[in-house]
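Appendix C reproduces, verbatim, an entry submitted by the partner laboratory led by Prof. M.T., so that reviewers can inspect both the input and the predicted structure.
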Amino acid sequence: MKTLNELYTQRLKRGLVRRLNNLKVASVAREVARRQPQPSGAPVVFFKASTGIDDLSWNSGFHLLASWALRLKGVPVAYFACNSGMSKCVLGTNRDDPYKEMPCSSCVYQSRTLYTEVQRHKSTDGQRPGVEWFGYERDPQLAKSTGRLSVPELMEFQWRDIPLGPLCLPGLRWVLRIHHLEDDENTRYLLREYILSAWNVARKFSDFLDRTQPRAVVVFNGQFFPEATARFIAQQRGIRVITHEVGLQPASAYFTDGEATAYPIHIPDEFELNNEQNARLDAYLAKRFQGDFTMAGIKFWADMKGLDESFLQKASGFKQIVPVFTNVIFDTSQPHANTVFEDMFQWLDLVLGVIKSHRETLFVIRAHPDELRVRKSSRETVQGWVDRHAVRKEPNVVFVNPNETLSSYELIQKSKFVMIYNSTIGLEASIMGAAVLCAGRARFTQYPTVFFPQSIEAYRNELEGFLNVEKIEVPPDFKRNARRFLYYQLYRTSLPFGDFLKPSVRTTQTRLRSFALEELLSSPAIRAIMDGMLNDGDFLLMEEDIRS
């Protein structure tokens, strides 16, 4: 735990680094504006309102660098930027005080810093880069129509053929860290304001598209309501929409024509890993299995430990071990995840019933470490579900808290099979040769990598069969496809930006490195993005550009 003095010092350091970084951004932006050729053709629109408020997030960095590269190639770029354009937004919401004033001043200041040089070159013909700053206009008719609705009614609310309720739901669940929303006034208030704000985005973005007539729209993530609404409006018009997220590798980005959070990847049927590729993947997995990895600047397993003697002694009294790997609420609440069960907790309820009828099996329920992430801790947690149902009292259950650094990989090696909802550990377990029973749609379930029954009844039958059969036969293609998918995720879809961005004081934020604009344009990541945006490419890194 840091002292107040340490926290104060870190805050001062963050502020200084942010100011210096903003100066560097402005300097590079001036150089981009000076060197860009006369733009020609239809513009590309960029919109990101849900990544970063008063600092440069990784996705803001990817957004900025990609747009700079387009401008340097003579492609007109138009930015759609928020100027207090929402009564409530996802990142600005204080979940403990929903009525707290939004941090618009610092957010707009940061955005204006990023777009300073763009504003100086704005024109109305759409042929030079420009920024459209949209403000907020409350629609009194919509406010009246939503004023007395319950949370369930607001969740399904549509307005003029736009599903505003469903578009706002993922962001609300994310910021509250709750899947099962309470029908209380705070939740109703937030969802109403999100709907009103989404409608404002829809109107302003629609007008913006009328004026710019873009060839494509690029948005962050596509799940939070500002970008989700813009994506919906653009797709209604038949405009191509590209989404982006952080990649699987450090300082990397993922761009796609699909939903970035669902990670659609096309792997050619004939693709097989060669010796060099297998060695590259094995080296990564060796580090991963020791806990040496980060995601979006977060290092989860600094001190991974093996199974201790007390666990092994308890396990020796059972016929078999089955780990149950859960996930965090903001991953399991995404619309594409829940295709079989309504949500992860409905799945856990089924699992608990099976636990009680199979006392010969030791079930190890593991809570995801991200449940307790600083500033993003979940409010509806697996740990809470365990406490509500007195799961710890079950004689054939071991519950692993989110802050326990027990090795999942050692646990998998000692297990008969593995149960997951949609966590990446399922992909790794398949690579290890384990049988994996999956309950929610995951990134890797688009290929045969795990057992994934498509109904609750089929899932229950598969689970009972796994528990009762002497040996589970795993199709050889599961391991093959798992390795192919992970290789593509790591080395083909994760576009490296480490030459241009580095971690800031808070590693979930970034800052610019010093680089020449020629280096940016010649970088493998930018080449893949340019090919994807301008030539309908696949946003994949070329094999020869992969760094081991």
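DSSP finds 20 helices and 16 strands in the chain. Additional entries are available on request from the coordinating office.
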